[in-house]
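User: Structure please.
Assistant: Input sequence and predicted structure:
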Amino acid sequence: SQAVAAFDNMDVRFLDPPAAPVSITEQFAKEDTMADWARPLASWQALGNRLYAYTLPAWGDYTLRMELEYFVGRTGTVDLCMADSVDGLPRAESLMQVSSQRDEQSITCGPAESVDGVSGKVQTTEKSPMLVLERRGGTLTARLDGKAFAWARVPDGIQAPWVALKLGGVGVNLNNVTLTSPNILDASFSGA
């Protein structure tokens, strides 16, 4: 007897490894005259109402790394928003939300209400855990200290290259937030 298999709407993808984190030459980061633009903070633009936009369009896949310093154990949220233009970011819906609760040593992450996906909660004893949000095709995956624990499907109509973080109730040190992509080459200081 022969086994028969049928597949409908199957998609197989081989993911490229994520881009390396941004490298900023130490001498520039310490130079007073360059303090405002020789750090990761310079890659984020404040749009008001605790909304911060990445200053370059992130076409296609990207990796957002956030050190969640002073986040665990406090009540607050960080929302990842995407839009077709910088002007559209203040009105953009959240695709993924990261949250923590006062006096809990955990981080919860999941898709926004209008987005398909799976939420997850991770216990952590780290004071400043590293959260990674990766966009690969139409999927956003959340990893904490290297372990995937939540994902969201990017709605089909969103080709949005502009990325923003909306902070609610907590602060995130934007000097500890980097966005890398195979489609972005920001080598301002790496070759100096």
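The first helix runs from residue 26 to 30.
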